[in-house]
Amino acid sequence: MALSSWKELPIGTIITKPGSAREFKTGDWRSQRPIWDPEKCIHCLICFIYCPDSSIKVNSEGKMTGIDLDYCKGCGICEEECPKQAIHMEIEKR
Amino acid sequence: MEKIFEVRWHGRGGQGAKTAAILFGDAAMSTGKYLQAFPEYGPERMGAPVQAFNRLSDSKITLHCGVKEPDVVVVLDPTLLESQPVTKGLKSDGTIIINTLLESKELRKKLNLATQKVFTINASGISRDTLGRELPNTPMLGALAKVTEIIGLEDLIAYTKKKLVKKFRGKGSGVIEGNLESIKRAYNSVRGG
Amino acid sequence: MPIRALTGNEAMAEAMRQINPDVVAAYPITPATEIVQLFASFVADGLVDTEFVPVESEHSAIAACTGAAAAGARVMTSTASQGLALMHEILYIAAGLRAPIVICEVNRSMSSPINIHCDHSDTMGSREAGWIQIFAEDAQDAYDLTIQAIRISEEVLLPVIVSTDAFIISHSMQRVDILEDNEVQKFIGPHKSPYSLFEKTITIGPLDLQDYFFEHKRQQIDAMWKSPQIIEKVAKEFATKFGRTYGFLEQYRMEGAEQVIIACGSTCGTARVAIDTLREKGIKVGLLNLRVMRPFPHAKLLELLKSFKLVSILDRSVTMSTMGGPVYVELRSALYDAPERPLLVDYIYGLGGRDIDVEQIMDVALKGEQIIKKNKVEKPVDYIGLRE
Ligand code: SF4
Ligand code: SF4
Known about the structure:
The structure holds 3 protein chains of 3 kinds. Helix content of chain A is 11%, strand content 20%. Chain A has 2 helices and 5 strands. The two termini of chain A are 24 Å apart. Chain B is α/β, with parallel strands linked by helices. Chain B has one domain: Pyruvate-ferredoxin Oxidoreductase, domain 3. Chain B contains 7 helices and 7 strands; from the N terminus they run E-H-E-E-E-H-E-H-E-H-H-H-H-E. Chain B has helices at residues 17-29, 80-83, 104-111, 123-131, 137-148, 153-168, 173-189, and strands at residues 5-12, 34-39, 49-57, 72-75, 95-99, 117-121, 191-192. Chain B has a 7-stranded mixed sheet, with helices on both faces. In chain C, the strands form 3 sheets. In chain C, strands 3-2-4-5-7-6-13 form a 7-stranded mixed sheet, sandwiched between helices. Chain C has a 6-stranded mixed sheet with strand order 10-12-11-14-15-16, with helices on both faces. In chain C, strands 1-8 form a two-stranded antiparallel ribbon. Chain C has helices spanning 8-19, 33-44, 58-70, 81-96, 121-124, 139-156, 181-188, 213-242, 267-280, 298-305, 326-334, 358-374, and strands at 3-6, 23-26, 51-54, 75-80, 101-107, 132-135, 160-165, 173-177, 203-204, 249-252, 259-263, 285-290, 292-294, 310-315, 343-348, 381-383. Chain C has 2 domains: 3-242, 3-Layer(aba) Sandwich (Rossmann fold), CATH 3.40.50.970; 249-383, 3-Layer(aba) Sandwich (Rossmann fold), CATH 3.40.50. The chains are: A alpha+beta, B alpha/beta, C alpha/beta. Chains B and C meet through helix 1 and strand 2 of B and strand 8 and helix 9 of C. Strand 2 (34-39) of chain B pairs antiparallel with strand 8 of chain C, so a sheet runs across the interface. Bound molecules: iron/sulfur cluster (SF4) (2 copies).
């Protein structure tokens, strides 16, 4: 994406498009990847509360449905906090 | 350049030198004059010697320095004659008005004034009578108006009344009347030359 | 037009009352206390519709003002000296966010040593924060320029500091011509803001790194470049409507002069009397009142001053560069491109409120005569009224 010149930018350091942070994918910072085991998961959503990057996907019924790898930074907190060992970390292969 | 008329007020913190300068300047403006009224800038402490100043002119005053050679000096407190250089810079044809029980002749000698006019007024006595306490500023305002002829008694009374009513926001009618009476009495009893 | 006897502080507070800003967040400080105090009483008496935010420090005051301005409100505050210094961090933020805010400032020295009197160290110390800076000569200027500042600020989208000299103007009662409330309202018009939090979803003040920060700064510089036109336009409109003329630089008796004295603030008034007296004596000297310090009117100064033999600068603050005061340093730089330049001498004066009188200013011109005769400046930076 070409960056705007100073003449094109809106003044006052404002961002006029809402939700632009969504375009910034932090998933590529990851060196470890969380693997979720739906068999063991009891949908307590503890991982959802602890995830610092809001990367635990939850559906409208309140059930965990997986991990959003676009934003997951691989910190491993979910693995640590899950009471059922339903998440484990693996080395990210790129 | 129009002539600028300068007044220096000597008082003690709490005696109302600044208020008097403001009232005088304000009243003079009502006669169409340009004015300045400002205190000697500094921390205000009860009883400490303080000064306030006026400048009056028929055209805009742009001078913003201190007053060094006043046309008139007004002394609100007789004890200041001992401790303050009240005659400093007073023009040779200038005037000094002093709140005192002494006669102007005695004061002329005491202050070593040859060419200047010396006026006296018992402003403390007047304010004790009219306000029940020592507030010599409004009587001195009356005396100053009389001596300088910058504003007539009736105009001064009317104008000061308006200002005091505003200041006290409708309260203290006794104080207002007392102050106006002070002005009147001082206007009529200041003497010297 | 009503005529009133007002101190500089009262004149500024009166302007604020008539402007009737949406938000005032302020913390009182000598010698600007009365501005805040009077305004608080206008709020208490229901004379304004302003949301008044009494805060616990100047830092909070300007922070609240910046937030309110970003939300789309018309915002004002008042401070002096250490108060302005405490605002320093947020001054940059307000300017960067292009928040239109007007500060009624009273020029007071910076501690230490502690002192409450006039010099220009406080405002001059903020001159790179991105604010337009206007120096008022007297209470009338303070009143008129505060009203104009609202328009300037909202059209340029930069915040503005209008300042008076501590005590000399802030506490001196003078005759001031006041406009009617509706005239002021008509002049300033409805509030304009660059954006509003309430119109659509926007993000204000995000982290701005190597990819965009520079561009945003360049925009601020651009706004400063464009501001002179707007300052002049507003001044012209004010003059047409109300008959009092302002602008960047006011020339006083410069025609036929050989030398010019340049100053900011109340000293210009005293200097006028000095110039009149000197002119009567046949000394060819004029005065230039530098009313706007930011943006610095370098092109105009170059045009105006290049043909004089000598310019004496009266600086009421110092830069610690050892090159003299800020006006001198910047003027010297502005004249660099002139094929023929006047000689320049800087006089530092009036620090911590030391009085400057007519004779001292006359002395500057008399010394100037000697310098012109010798065609040589021996002491580029000198002092007035200092015990050597
Ligand atoms: S913490 Fe473990 S068990 Fe609970 S929702 Fe997350 S993955 Fe499932
Ligand atoms: S690894 Fe960290 S960032 Fe990724 S889902 Fe688990 S808690 Fe969230």
